[in-house]
Automatic annotation (TrEMBL):
SMART domains: ILWEQ. PROSITE patterns: I_LWEQ. It holds the Pfam family I_LWEQ. This is HIP1R protein. Residues 7-248 form the I/LWEQ domain. It comes from Oxyruncus cristatus. Residues 207-243 form a coiled coil. Its main location: cytoplasm.
Length: 280
């Protein structure tokens, strides 16, 4: 009791309520994130088409799968916490258990906040990407943050849980699922970014006649430059092959200069037909 920080005494009666409130707040944040993603999906279908619609749908679908995985993670974590409290408090009340294990409780609250915050940030980043006002890299960073906060929540829950607990096994499985879904968000984001950037470089629909003519002339110049460079490389390749033949003895350049070939006898011997084998 003497070693415990004094500032925690004020919060002892509030810690238990804070855990429940924070887990409830995290669940609400995730539910709200799922609703917002559905709204973004509907908006994307109305305002975009073609490649952009395909990319937006793939990214938002992966975000939805990630939110569902997080929601299951939070539910399983809540069940595990109840199990931990029931098995560890003995004759004490729930509030007294949280107060007695205040360090663990605060770690649990912090981890829960991190998960909820990560989910909210992911949705905001996805919204900006769909509206073309944000960066694809933001989604990737948010996915990594969610994976990290999930690991924090699992670690905080695992400290007090029994090794044979079924809820702990379910929580670890949920954590792996969250990591897998976060990786899917990263993969869909990267592939979508490549598709959009490739399409934008070939989209000339918004150019005026003058702009198109200018782009056409610049492209013709690049084509001529590349053709000239290609021709030069072909000449270089021919010279390299010629030199290769000379060094390998594939031509008679040395003989035309009057130079004697070294060891001509063995060469003629090699070209002779072998003697016909006699019957015994």
């Amino acid at each position: 009791q003497e070693l415990r920080p004094k500032n925690l005494d004020i919060k002892q009666e509030e810690l238990g309520d804070m855990v429940e409130k924070e887990m409830a707040s995290t669940s609400e944040a995730i539910e709200d994130a799922v609703r917002r993603i559905e709204e973004m999906m509907s908006q994307a279908r109305n305002e975009s088409s073609g490649v952009k619609l395909e990319v937006n749908e793939r990214i938002l679908n992966s975000c939805t799968d990630l939110m569902k995985a997080i929601r299951l993670l939070v539910t399983t974590s809540t069940n595990l916490q109840k199990e931990i409290v029931e098995s560890g408090r003995g004759a004490a009340t729930t509030q007294e258990f949280y107060a007695k294990n205040s360090r663990w409780t605060e770690g649990l609250i912090s981890a829960s906040k991190a998960v909820g915050w990560g989910a909210t940030q992911l949705v905001e980043s996805a919204d900006r990407v769909v509206l073309h006002t944000g960066k694809y890299e933001e989604l990737i960073v948010c996915s990594h943050e969610i994976a990290a906060s999930t690991a924090q929540l699992v670690a905080a829950s695992k400290v007090k849980a029994e090794k044979s607990s079924r809820n702990l096994a379910r929580l670890q499985e949920c954590s792996r699922n969250v990591n897998e879904m976060a990786a899917n968000v990263v993969a869909s984001t990267k592939s979508g970014q490549e598709q959009i950037e490739e399409k934008d470089t070939m989209d000339f629909s918004g150019m005026s006649l003058i702009k198109l003519k200018k782009e056409e002339m610049e492209t013709q110049v690049k084509v001529l430059e590349l053709e000239k460079r290609l021709e030069g490389e072909r000449v270089r390749l021919g010279e390299l092959r010629k030199q290769h033949y000379i060094l390998a003895g594939g031509c008679d350049a040395a003989a035309e200069d009057g130079e004697a070939r070294p060891a001509p006898a063995p060469r003629r011997g090699i070209l002779k037909k072998p003697p016909i084998a006699q019957k015994p």
